[in-house]
Amino acid sequence: MKKILFIFNPRSGKAQIRNKLLDILDIFTKAGYELSVHVTQRCGDAMEAAAEYGGNADLVVCSGGDGTLNETISGLMKLDHLPNLGYIPAGSTNDFASSLKISKNMIRAAEAAVYGEPFPIDIGCFCEDRHFVYIAAFGAFTEVSYLTPQDKKNVLGHQAYMLEGMKSLASIKSYGMKIECEELPAGIPLYPESVGKKEEMILEGEFIFGMITNTISVGGFKGLVTQDVALDDGEFEVLLIRTPKTPLDLTNIINYMFLKEEPNEYVHKFRTRSLRILSEEPIDWVLDGEFGGTKREVNIINLKKRIQIMRKVPKK
User: Fold this and answer.
1) Rounded-to-integer distance, Cα 37 and Cα 58, Å
2) Enzyme catalytic residues
3) How do beta strands 236-242 and 201-213 pair?
4) Which of 35, 50, 120, 312 is positioned for an S-S bond with 54, CB 3.0–4.6 A?
C-alpha cells in the first residue's frame, strides 16, 4: 500500500483545519494511502518530521501557512530521495499557493494532493544549509512577517501585516552592501554605480530593501513582481531598493513599485540564477515569512526543478 505522511500546523489561519480534518483524512484513505499524521507543536517541528519520516513516504502532504511549507520542504531537502509533495494552504496570506494555483478550498487542495499531477518547482538554497520556497528578503518591513504574533495573524489575517508594517515606517534602516550577480539579462541597463561585464553585475551602495523571489505574489500583493514568472526556469526575480535621499524619492519608489510609473533610479529589477551579497554589518534575513538568521555574507543559488509538487486534478 502507498504511504502518505501528513504534516499540519493546527494553529495556522484561524485553526480552520479543525473543521476539515476528518474530510481530508477520508480523502487520503479513499485514494488508497496508508496514513501517518504529524501535528506540529513548535517552530522547526515540520522540518524535523519531514526529514525523519519523509523518506518512508510515497507522498508528503503539509498543511499550514508559507512557514509550514518552507519547513516541510527544508526537511525533505535533507533526504536522498525526494517524495512528491502536496500542499493544503491554511495560512493568512499563502503567497506560494496563489502562484501555484492551488485552491484555497482545503478539500479541493487535498484532492489535488492525491489525484493531481506533479509540477516541478525551483528551490532556493540559502548559505548552503537553509532553503526557501518563494522569497528571501532583508530590510524594510521584512521583520513584520516573523514578529507579528500568530494570534494577531489569525484575527486580522492579511491586515495584520499592514498594521505592523506601518509601525516600522519611521525606523527604516540603510545598509552598506555589495551585490554580485551571476548574470544580467539583456535589456536591463547598468547603472553608473554598477561595474562589470554583461555576464556579471556588481551593485554597491546603501540599500533599504531587497528580495529574491520565485513567486507572483508577495505579502498578498501581485504588483511587486512581474507576472511572467516561471516557477521552474532556474531563475530568481530580484528587487533591490537603494536608500532614498529625500521623502520625495521614497514616494517615487512606492509609486514605481505599486503604480507602475516611470522607472526609478533607486529601484533595481533583474533575473539571475545566483547572488552573493556582502554587507558592512550583520543583517536579519527572512525566508518565506520566517526568521532566516543574521548574516554579513549571503550566497543564494537556484536549485532548478528540485521538488515535485502536486496540483490540478486532471479533467475527466
Assistant:
1) 14
2) 290
3) antiparallel
4) 50
Query: From CA 109, how far away is CA 5, in angstroms rounded?
Result: 16
pLDDT tens-digit series, residues 295-312: 999 999 999 999 999 997
Grid cell of 140 as nine digits: 524594510
Whole-number Å distance between alpha carbons of 7 and 260: 40
pLDDT value at residue 92: 63
Cell match 525533505: residue? 76
In sequence order, the β-bridge partners of residue 3 are: 34
What pLDDT sits at residue 181?
Answer: 87
Alpha-carbon distances of 234 from 147, 200, 254, rounded to whole Å? 31, 17, 29
Which amino acid, 247? P
* Residue tagged 531587497 (cell numbers): 210
Residue with cell 522547526: 44
Q: How far is CA 293 from CA 137, 146, 147, in A?
A: 11, 12, 14
Residue found under cell 498594521:
163
pLDDT given for residue 262 in this prediction: 61
